[in-house]
Amino acid sequence: MSGDPILTVDRLMMRFGGIVAVNALSFAAERRKITALIGPNGAGKTTVFNCITGFYRPSGGAIRLAHDDGRTMQLERLGDFRITKQAKVARTFQNIRLFPGMTALENLMVAQHNALMRASGLTLLGLLGLPSWREAEQRAIELARTWLDRVGLLSRADDAAGNLAYGDQRRLEIARAMCTEPVLLCLDEPAAGLNARESGGLNELLLSIRNEQGTSILLIEHDMSVVMEISDHVVVMDYGVKIAEGSPQAVRDDPKVIAAYLGADEEEAIAVMESGT
Amino acid sequence: MSATSARPSHAAQPSGSAFILKKALISAAVALVLFSLMIGIRTEAGPQGGLIYWTRFGDLAALVGTVFGGSIIIELLRQWWGPIDTDHIVPKPVQAAMSFAGRWLAPALLVFAFLVPVIFYNQRYILDLSILVLTYVMLGWGLNVVVGLAGLLDLGYVAFYAVGAYSYALLATNFGLSFWVCLPLAGILAAFWGVLLGFPVLRLRGDYLAIVTLAFGEIIRLVIINWQSLTGGPNGVSGIPRPTLFGIPLDNSDDGLAAKLGIDFSPTHRIVFLFYLILAMALLTNWVTIRLRRLPIGRAWEALREDEVACRALGINVTTTKLTAFATGAMFGGFAGAFFATRQGFISPESFTFQESALVLAIVVLGGMGSQLGVALAALTMIGGFELFRGFDQYRMLVFGIAMVLLMIWRPRGLIGHRAPTVYLERNQAISSDLVKEGHG
Ligand SMILES: Nc1ncnc2c1ncn2[C@@H]1O[C@H](COP(=O)(O)OP(=O)(O)OP(=O)(O)O)[C@@H](O)[C@H]1O
Ligand SMILES: [Mg+2]
User: Fold this and answer.
1) Which of B314, B319, B419, B433 best tests the A interface by mutation, with the highest count of A CBs <10 A?
2) Domain assignment of residue A58, yes or no
3) Which residue has the least CA distance to atom 29 on ligand 1?
4) pTM over 0.95
5) Cβ atoms of B225 and B349 closer than 8 Å
6) A6: exposed, middle or buried (C-beta count within 10 Å: 0-12, 13-18, 19+)?
């Protein structure tokens, strides 16, 4: 694949005991593009995400992240929270993981933890309430307000995250990930459980994140209408290996992809074939 | 979709007389099995050294009957009172009461606390009791950082109390350092021990963490008992210097405070001084905690309690965040320990048993985890209430236990279970306790 990849996954392996969840998977995600990772249930998509974001240590292979300034980072060596803190990769979860007992605004403030820790002089300056800290906090609140506004949750800013409707929680989780100011945003099935209108709104949100923030997006999605409409590039996995990749149209017409989906679940295969027609 | 429709139903709890009866019968059956041997048959060594026994079926029947009746009553009470927050959204009256309490109760308590030595100047007993209550308020606020905010179950908090107390006692008796020099040292040493314990332990979660902290509390106590050359072992450390008012002792010597002010000496002066000292220390703890909650570190503690995995995904270093919570809590415990040593003038390992840890933890849980006002109220209730029941003599523990059980049925998330947000755009509204997680490790 040509171009300027931000993320390069090279022969990634992930074994769990005897199970090979990801088997020598290689693909690249272009900078400022939306790359979709699709595949039937149990194909290993979430496992790939967990490797990229440091929740799993890969059994083999390399994951390289190339920043705009040319620095590259080996994510598989970074591990844990440093992937978000230093490599600036943010993620959301397949089953939403907000802080339910904190308000929407607080959720977004927690996301700015590292920047705020620096501004608060590792807490000491903040404890004294120095003006520089108060300004930094105000800026953080403004950033949170901006993102709440963009995901349409400004009026719910002071409500507990656990009290929000399902679709609102999904969007809040995306806003929270964006508050870490990532260069790569990994979304695990963001449209799951959304109705048609909400998923349309999600498409617009993701496109605006790509266009305005210039954030590259890696997307796992079952909802083919989302995949076909917004992704620039699609990678298809089955049983831990890549079976196809290319533009949404090319992938949709690929017989191997249709076969994989037919083998897994007939309804999904039909969804793949019917979408876009 | 409105927020209310997203909430799971709480109406699923079974009720009805059949259910209550069944539950009571099961309880009675369990009681019968348990007590048939313990109470039903009494054995004793006879005059010839042989075992004689007799039966007490009457007592057994009475007991089983009591359990049966009690079980019905408790179940009925539970259904009448119900847990107050069966709603995800804090109901309006509760919100109003909350803001009222927040606005008036805390300042009223504070003013009252300041006036206690004035009102009860001649009642030594009440002054001593107030000092005790305030010590537990401070310990509760300290542990609240660990348990209430960060959600780490620490059953060995007394260890840090002990480290603080022994730090002051040993530094003061061996090196003649004054209380005001030792106080920060005691806090730092306790925090240091907190970090030392934290490193290996904090990757454990939930029950495992609780057990290891429990063991740590015991280890510290055993070390104190056995390291006789340093700590004096079971005999403890005596002759710990009393605190001074910036170098001026509070005794009846010529350069004592009374002599300097030209007033008659009275031992109450020292008590009043100790009272204001612990009040100031407790308030400092409170102030620091409230501020920390609004700083990124405090928010990270609470986020950790809510969801550790999400914290990692946001780039938060979970280990150091837990360590800071542990160290901060330990530091306040150390301060309180130093105060304890200077107040008593004598400390021994007996003051630092698991019972103390359990008591402080009970205060935090009863107060409503994370709530500063709740913890203060709980300390007042627990320590003050315990004294109140002194009249019940041998039933004191029993009455107290029943009162606690009833309180927890009535308010399962503690006296003040709601969580106040640390930052808001427009509305500062409390968050219902059902949504707030208790932490898992
Ligand atoms: N921690 C783990 N331990 C053992 N096996 C695992 C683990 N995580 C994932 N697997 C296995 O790896 C395979 C791929 O799982 P994964 O969750 O990545 O699939 P997925 O493509 O995300 O599926 P879905 O579309 O259902 O979310 C599955 O067979 C799963 O059982
Ligand atoms: Mg998945």
Assistant:
1) B314
2) yes
3) A42
4) no
5) yes
6) buried
Q: What gap in Å lies between CA A223 and CA A96, rounded to an integer?
A: 17
- Could you tell me if the CB of A21 is within 6 A of ligand 1? yes
Distance A40 CA to ligand 1 centre (A): 11
Mean pLDDT, rounded, for A41-55: 90
Complex prediction ipTM: 0.88
Q: What is d(CA B225, CA B207) in angstroms, rounded to the nearest whole number?
A: 27
At position A112, the amino acid (one-letter code) is Q
Please choose, from the candidates B157, B159, B139, the residue with its C-alpha nearest in 3D space to the C-alpha of residue B224: B159
Beta-ladder partners of A9: A27, A63
Cα–Cα distance list, A62 to A12, A22, B143 (Å): 6, 13, 44
- Domain finish residue from A180, A203, A218: A180
Ligand 1 pocket test, pick from A14, A15, A16 with the greatest ligand atom count within 8 Å of Cβ, gives: A16
For chain A, the farthest-separated pair of C-alpha atoms sits apart, in whole angstroms, at 65
> Tell me: the pLDDT tens digits for A122-159?
767 777 777 788 888 899 999 999 999 999 898 988 88
Q: Find the helix or strand (DSSP H, E) in which B85 lies.
A: none
Query: What pLDDT is recorded for position A99?
Result: 92
Q: Where are the extended beta strands (E) located within B295-387?
A: 346-347
Q: Do residues B51 and B42 lie in contact, with contact meaning Cβ atoms separated by under 8 Å? A: no
Q: What is the CB-side half-sphere exposure of residue B335 using CA atoms within 13 A?
A: 26
- Inter-chain touch B299–A103, beta carbons under 8 Å: no
Q: How far is residue B319's CA from residue A72's CA, in Å, rounded to a whole number?
A: 26
In this structure, are A160 and A188 located in the same domain? no
User: Please, which pLDDT band fits residue A175 given cuts at 50, 70 and 90?
Assistant: very high
Whether residue B340 contacts residue B351, with contact meaning beta carbons closer than 8 Å, is answered with yes
The residue-averaged pLDDT of A217-246 equals 88
> Which of A160, A180, A200 is the endpoint of a domain?
A180
Cβ-contact A199, A174 below 8 angstroms? no
Domain extent, residue A140, equals 99-180
Angle between helices B179-201 and B318-344 (to 10 degrees): 140
**Pairing outcome for strands A184-188 and A89-91:** parallel
**Could you tell me the pLDDT band of residue B441, with boundaries at 50, 70 and 90?**
low
| pLDDT given at position B191 | 92
What residues form DSSP beta bridges with B44?
B52
Cα dihedral sign, A155-A160-A164-A166: positive
- Judging contacts by C-beta atoms under 8 Å, the chain B residues touching residue A106 are 299, 421-423
d(CA A201, CA A218): 18
Sign of the torsion formed by the C-alpha atoms of A146, A150, A153 and A159? negative
**How far away is chain A from the Cα of B320, in angstroms, using its nearest Cα?**
11
- Look at residue B373 and give its three-state secondary structure: helix
Rounded to the nearest angstrom, the minimum Cα separation between A111 and chain B is 6
* C-beta of residue B82 within 8 angstroms of C-beta of residue B70: no
Please report, for chain B, the start and end positions of each structural domain, with discontinuous segments joined by +. 17-81, 105-359
Cβ contact, residue pair B425, A157, below 8 Å: yes
**CA–CA gap between residue A36 and residue A83 (Å, rounded):** 21
Q: How many whole angstroms separate alpha carbon B290 and alpha carbon B271?
A: 28
Q: Tally the domains of chain A.
A: 2
- Cβ–ligand 1 contact at A240 (below 6 Å): no
For A65, counting Cβ atoms within 10 Å of its Cβ (0-12 exposed, 13-18 middle, 19+ buried), the class is: buried
Q: Which CATH number does the domain housing residue A83 bear?
A: 3.40.50.300
At B347-365, the pLDDT tens digits run 888 888 888 888 898 888 8
| CB-CB neighbours of A1 under 10 Å | 12
Report the distance separating Cα A228 and Cα A177, nearest Å: 23
Do A173 and A191 lie in one domain? The reply is: no
Spell out where B237-360 has E strands: 237-238, 346-347
